[in-house]
Each structure stands twice: as structure tokens, then as C-alpha cells.
Inverse folding.
């Protein structure tokens, strides 16, 4: 933040110095050329006077014209030629124009440079800010399972436990480790996705089977948290996508939905799908905490957490929906989020291109 | 006997992580304290308005009502039950915030079980 301040002051100073410099330069050039023009005019007036003197001394008009070709000689007298006078005026205009354009262009280019640099710097600051948030978040998210692990281990070391009690503690530790592992892989996934370093396939995926596999893994958890988990996905829907990406996307949305519903002590999560306009839409509707109408764009940003201090994202990394959107983008699909408001549940809709029908 | 008095003390553990809540409760019970648990701030506040205890072990990042606000609310309502903050937010600023909110002690996660139990004992002795 301090470097930004230094940059701003330096940029401001640079602009001020440059404007003064350009102003001075324009003034000086103008002064110089005015002087030059005046000198040229005086010299020309002298030529005319000289021609007049020569004519008065009896020199022939042809002789005078040969000596001073720029002076117009008519009726035995010398006069300034109209063309030469016009040339002076034109030269003056040309120079004024030139200063205006040159200094204008210079200031424009300078402003553009400062603009580009400050924009880059702002982006840099934003990235740094995000990284700071990320670090704070990661450390915070890791501390809870770490504290739980440490507590379980120290309890085992300190107390005389029955085999059953020991088993409970071991199970807890395994779950804590799994939580940390999920976090690590999500962080790595998001970094890879952000840099586009993924090799995604595009092949027919049977949606009902893909959703069924993921849902099957969460049925137990849903039951424990009093969440009615239902799926209504027709068997004949085939999407064109990466099978692993479909799995990750469905899993992340389901985890989100379960957390959102668990936060309001139970409810429903429903998967439904339909074909529409060459696409297949999968919707995930939950009766959970929902979100404000203005938050739907922010939801998909990295590290955005709509419920600080608890709620649905308490165990979240702030990366789940970011990963979903990125994966959908990279596989030619879309994702959108809808909620009437906080406490009103939420609806997430995924769309993939439908796979062309093929005989099986 | 003073130890018997201390051991009979009733405590409330406010923690939304089920593993930590269970682990803390088990260890406090093993030391002879009576333990109640609450998984979110609002439930904890409701419990504390209805019941009394000698110590609240309080997490900060809680659903519905955060620990700092909960503690401040208690103090405003004239409830002076000792509060031990137990949270992943271990920055010096957070510690200051916690103590300003009316907390009696502050322990950052992850923590040592022995240290936690000693601090609990120290608060209950006061």
C-alpha cells in the first residue's frame, strides 16, 4: 500500500513537471518563431527598401529584379510581393498549429502512460490484496481441523481411553485430515484452473449417472443433517463435457447446497434436469440460507464468502463456486445462480451443450 | 475442599465445529466439570439468559451471532460470567478486540490441551 502512495506522488510530480516543461517549451518555441518571423519581415522590408533605393539610383528594373527576386517591382517602384506576405502569415499559422498538436499529443501520451501504469499497479494491488485475503483465509480454514487434530491426539496422550473411545478419536482425526486434504486439492485446482493449465476432454457424459454417483456419496450426510435430497434427472440426457469436470461441478454445488440447508437446520435439496435448445440444463435447488439479489455475481468470485462469521460457507474455502464457474467456462458450459433473498433458498443452473444423438 | 468446589463448576462450550466441541466437552468432563455445548451464537445467548454457569468457552466465528458480539451483549445485560475466547483468529488485534468485548482470557487455535485446562482452572479459581 505504501508503494502505491509513493507511485501516486511520483506520478503526480511527473505530470506537473511535464506540464510545466511542455508549457515552457511551447512558450519558448512560440517566442523563438515569432522572433524569427519578425526578423524575416524586417529583412524583407530592408530588401524592399534596398530595391527602392536601387531604382531611385537609376538601376534598371530588370537589374533590380535579378538582384532581389522576391521584391515586386511595378511602375518604377518596389513593393512587398503579396505571395511573400501570404507565406509569412501561412508560416505563422503552420507553426501555431504544430505547437498545439505536438504539445497536445505529448500530454496525451504522457497521460496515457500514467494511466496504463496506474491501472497495472491497481491490478497488482488487487492481486496482492487477494493473496493476503487468501493467506488469512487459508490459515484460518486450516486452523480449525488442525486444532481438532491436536486436541484428539493430546487427549489420547493424556487420558486412559477405552478401545471404543480411542476409535471415536481416530475417526475424528481421519475426518479432519480428509477436510484438510479437500482444502489443499481445491486450492491447487483453483490455481491450475486460473492459469488454464488443465487438459479437459469433450465427450458424451450421461448426466443421470454422473449426478447419481455424486449424490450417492452424500446421502448419508444429508440424512444426518435432516436434509431431503432428491434427484429427477431423465436417463436419456447426454451432455458434451469432461466427465471429471462434471463430477467436480456437481459435487461442489451439492456441498454448497447441503451447507446452506444445514445452516437453517434442515430442508430440501433437489436436482432436476431438462433438454432445451440444444443444451441440457441441470438445476440444483435448495431451501437454505440463500443470498441477496445483488450477490449473485459476487458468488463466483474467488474467495468471496457471503456469510462471514458462519452460515453456509463456514467450512468453505471461498473457492468452490469459483472452480465451478471456471470449469463450466472451459468446457463450453455456463452456470448461473438465483435467489430471491437471504433465507429464501437458492437455485443454481448448469448448462452444457447436448451431445449429438448416437445409436447405442 | 476447594478442588471439589472447582470440579463441580458448570461450563458452557460454544463451538460450531462438532469435533472440537466434542473434544473440549470430553476433556472438561474428564476434569470433573459439568459441560453444556452450543453450536451457534444465538443458541448460546438464549441458553445463557436462561441458565447460569461459571465459565463460557467461546469461539469467535460462529453462525448467526459472533463471539465478540455475544460477549459484549452479555456484559451489557450485566452478565459477568467469565469468558475464555478460543479462536483461530490469533492476531494481537483480535486478542485486544476479544478482551475489549469483555473476555477474561484468549487462547488461539490450535492450542495445547494442558494449557487450555490450566487456563480454565485459573479462571475458575478467581
Amino acid at each position: 500500500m505504501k508503494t502505491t502512495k509513493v507511485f501516486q506522488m511520483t506520478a503526480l510530480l511527473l505530470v506537473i513537471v511535464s506540464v510545466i516543461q511542455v508549457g515552457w517549451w511551447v512558450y519558448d518555441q512560440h517566442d523563438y518563431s515569432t522572433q524569427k518571423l519578425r526578423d524575416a519581415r524586417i529583412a524583407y522590408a530592408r530588401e524592399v527598401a534596398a530595391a527602392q533605393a536601387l531604382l531611385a539610383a537609376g538601376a534598371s528594373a530588370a537589374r533590380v529584379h535579378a538582384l532581389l527576386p522576391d521584391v515586386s517591382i511595378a511602375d518604377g517602384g518596389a513593393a512587398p510581393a503579396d505571395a511573400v506576405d501570404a507565406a509569412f502569415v501561412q508560416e505563422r499559422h503552420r507553426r501555431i498549429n504544430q505547437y498545439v498538436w505536438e504539445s497536445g499529443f505529448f500530454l496525451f501520451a504522457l497521460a496515457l502512460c500514467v494511466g496504463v501504469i496506474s491501472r497495472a499497479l491497481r491490478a497488482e494491488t488487487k492481486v496482492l490484496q487477494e493473496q493476503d485475503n487468501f493467506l488469512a483465509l487459508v490459515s484460518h480454514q486450516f486452523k480449525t481441523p488442525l486444532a481438532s487434530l491436536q486436541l484428539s491426539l493430546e487427549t489420547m496422550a493424556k487420558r486412559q481411553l477405552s478401545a471404543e473411545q480411542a476409535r471415536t478419536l481416530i475417526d475424528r482425526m481421519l475426518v479432519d485430515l480428509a477436510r484438510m486434504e479437500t482444502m489443499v486439492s481445491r486450492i491447487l485446482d483453483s490455481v491450475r484452473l486460473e492459469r488454464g493449465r488443465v487438459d479437459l476432454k469433450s465427450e458424451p457424459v450421461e448426466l443421470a449417472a454422473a449426478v447419481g454417483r455424486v449424490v450417492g456419496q452424500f446421502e448419508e450426510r444429508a440424512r444426518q443433517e435432516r436434509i431431503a435430497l432428491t434427484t429427477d434427472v431423465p436417463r436419456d440426457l447426454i451432455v458434451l463435457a469432461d466427465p471429471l469436470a462434471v463430477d467436480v461441478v456437481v459435487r461442489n454445488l451439492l456441498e454448497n447446497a447441503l451447507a446452506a440447508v444445514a445452516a437453517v437446520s434442515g430442508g430440501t435439496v433437489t436436482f432436476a434436469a431438462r433438454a432445451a435448445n440444444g443444451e441440457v440444463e441441470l438445476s440444483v435447488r435448495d431451501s437454505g440460507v440463500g443470498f441477496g439479489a445483488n450477490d449473485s455475481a459476487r458468488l463466483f468470485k474467488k474467495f468471496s464468502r457471503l456469510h462471514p462469521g458462519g452460515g453456509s460457507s463456514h467450512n468453505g474455502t471461498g473457492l468452490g463456486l469459483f472452480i465451478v464457474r471456471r470449469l463450466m467456462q472451459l468446457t463450453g458450459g455456463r452456470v448461473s445462480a438465483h435467489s430471491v433473498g437471504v433465507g429464501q433458498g437458492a437455485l443454481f443452473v448448469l448448462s452444457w451443450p447436448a451431445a449429438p444423438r448416437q445409436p447405442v | 475442599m476447594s478442588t471439589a468446589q472447582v470440579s463441580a463448576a458448570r461450563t458452557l462450550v460454544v463451538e460450531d465445529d462438532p469435533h472440537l466441541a466434542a473434544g473440549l466437552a470430553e476433556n472438561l468432563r474428564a476434569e470433573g466439570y459439568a459441560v453444556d455445548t452450543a453450536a451457534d451464537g444465538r443458541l448460546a445467548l438464549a441458553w445463557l439468559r436462561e441458565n447460569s454457569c461459571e465459565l463460557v468457552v467461546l469461539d469467535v466465528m460462529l453462525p448467526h451471532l459472533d463471539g465478540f458480539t455475544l460477549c459484549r451483549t452479555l456484559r451489557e445485560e450485566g452478565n459477568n460470567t467469565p469468558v475464555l475466547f478460543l479462536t483461530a483468529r490469533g492476531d494481537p488485534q483480535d486478542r485486544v478486540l476479544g478482551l475489549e468485548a469483555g473476555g477474561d482470557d484468549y487462547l488461539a487455535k490450535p492450542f495445547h490441551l494442558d494449557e487450555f485446562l490450566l487456563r480454565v482452572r485459573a479462571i475458575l479459581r478467581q
In short: The beta strands of chain A are 71-74, 77-80, 203-206, 227-232, 238-241, 267-276, 279-286, 334-338, 346-353. The first strand of chain A starts at residue 71 and ends at 74.
